[in-house]
Amino acid sequence: MPSFDVVSEVDLAEVDNAVQNVTREISTRYDFKGSSSRLEHADGVLTVHADDELKLKQMHEIIRGQLNKRGVEPGMLDYQKVEPATGMSVRQAITIKQGLDKELAKSIVKKIKGEKLKVQVAIQGEELRVSGKKRDDLQSAMAFMKGMGLDQPLQFKNFRD
Description:
Blueprint: E1 3-7, H1 12-28, E2 38-42, E3 45-50, H2 53-69, E4 77-79, E5 83-84, E6 90-96, H3 102-114, E7 119-124, E8 127-132, H4 135-146, E9 155-160
Antiparallel strand pairs: 1-8, 1-9, 2-3, 3-6, 4-6, 5-6, 7-8
């Protein structure tokens, strides 16, 4: 019986490369000259340190651009609350979403069942296993999931015929 897995994951090596590119770009940009703005990455969390809100917004644009060049979609980023740091500077944590959370997985399963596609969907931890009798049914399920317009990007892996 053909099947495939639906996952939502990021290659953290690409995130590291993007962080290095952002650091390099900040060091060469004129509007960041003399600034103590920096970006750190540890355990799937990006920490942005900026002098003020304006520089924080500029750093967001640089980060999104570099991550997009590296194949990390902006929907994978979860921006936390901006915290005041020493003096006038601000700090913000950006978590990188890995895996499908339970609520999102349940809503995807419910929508697929509501669409009455000829596939079975099973939640397996942080991924979904979609199986069906025909390859065409699986491809229609993939097309349906791509068209759902979810905030978090999905990848389809492990296609078995």
